[in-house]
Amino acid sequence: MLNNLRKVAQVLFFVYIVGIGARFALYLNALNNGDMTATKPFGVEGFLPISALLGLKQLVMSFEYDRVHPAGLTIFIAIIVMSIVLKKSFCSHICPVGCVSESVSKIGFNKRIPWYIPVWALKYVLLGFFVYVVLFGMDINAIRAFINSPYNAVSDAKMLYLFTPPSLTTVLVLVAIILLTLVFRNFWCKNLCPYGALLGLFSVLSPIKVKRNAEACTSCMKCTKVCPSGLSVHTKKTIHNPDCVGCHECIKHRGTPECLETTVVRYNKWFPLVAVGIFVLITIVAMVTGYWESSVSNEQYLQFLKIGVTHP
After folding, report:
1. Local structure of residue 47 (DSSP, 8 states)
2. How far apart are CA 101 and CA 282, in angstroms?
């Protein structure tokens, strides 16, 4: 059980997040039926990374906390902290897409994309585009205008409407990603996810990395075979690669107790609780201190839905 804490956390968060999506759909239905007493599940704002990135820039530049999607900004801050402490542990412990990607990969062929086809660079191209627009294309006034716009206020609803029901384009894209994941392990996470690319850059700052003892290594390659990111762990001295998701599966499946370890502190089977604990603690603090619930009332939310941001 203790050796599977990470996977338990993945599944529990996946179920919880699916539940949030269902509750959000019920919330929107209640509003459209005139029930202004409905309660919005604010965790759904975690699916708005662009809004969160803008909110973070506003916070850094003017010390103003996003009051439209405060939960989204809080979740964004929490996963950045997780990445700095325990690598991209959000991706390997909490992210629902990561959970699905790993599950699909287990039944696939797990081929490696040839090194001369740099598909992995696509996520950095996407990240570069979004970062350029946010950091250089928008000043503080433009950011404030976007954050307080009707479109941004109901962007979480717009996101839900992409999948309820999904368009033919959405279905084709999802099917393509699943098929590619069956062939190439964690295809989306490793090659296309700009969110993961950003967290990878923060994770470089993490003091806790996997290191290999070359003298104790037997070249059994067990560590490399179980790595969800497809890293050649058995050939590295220390894993600095930003694609490392901090899952520590390589250490759990190491050939000998001495061949792999973590820097700074020894690997501990309780690491998953530390990763999840960081996320939960920051979330609880935000809830207690008033940085979780949106300032947009149900009446305003419904009004914004009706003035142009409606179900397609």
Report:
1. G
2. 26
Beta carbons within 10 angstroms of residue 78's beta carbon: 21
Contact yes or no for 41/18 (Cβ under 8 A)? no
Q: Does domain 209-263 have CATH number 2.60.40.10?
A: no
Q: What is the pLDDT along the chain (312 residues), one digit of tens a residue?
A: 556 899 999 999 999 999 999 999 999 999 999 999 999 998 899 889 889 999 999 999 999 999 999 999 999 999 999 999 999 999 999 999 999 999 999 998 888 887 667 898 999 999 999 889 888 889 999 999 999 999 999 999 988 888 888 889 989 999 999 999 999 999 999 999 999 999 999 999 999 999 999 999 999 999 999 999 999 999 999 999 999 999 999 999 999 999 999 999 999 889 999 999 999 999 999 999 999 999 999 999 999 988 755 444
Structure tokens at 168: 């033919």
For Cα atoms 84, 127, 13, give the angle at the middle one, nearest 5 degrees: 55
Cis ω on the peptide bond leading into residue 165 (within 30° of 0)? yes
Residue 171 CB neighbour total at 10 angstroms? 12
Query: Which residue has 């207690």 as its token pair?
Result: 288
Length of the chain: 312
CA 16 to chain centre: 15
Provide CATH 3.30.70.20 ranges for the chain: 209-263
For residue 85 the two structure tokens come to 């402490």
CA distances from 284 to 47, 84, 151, 290 (A): 19, 20, 28, 10
Cβ atoms of 119 and 113 closer than 8 Å: yes
Q: Taking the complete model, does pTM exceed 0.85, yes or no?
A: yes
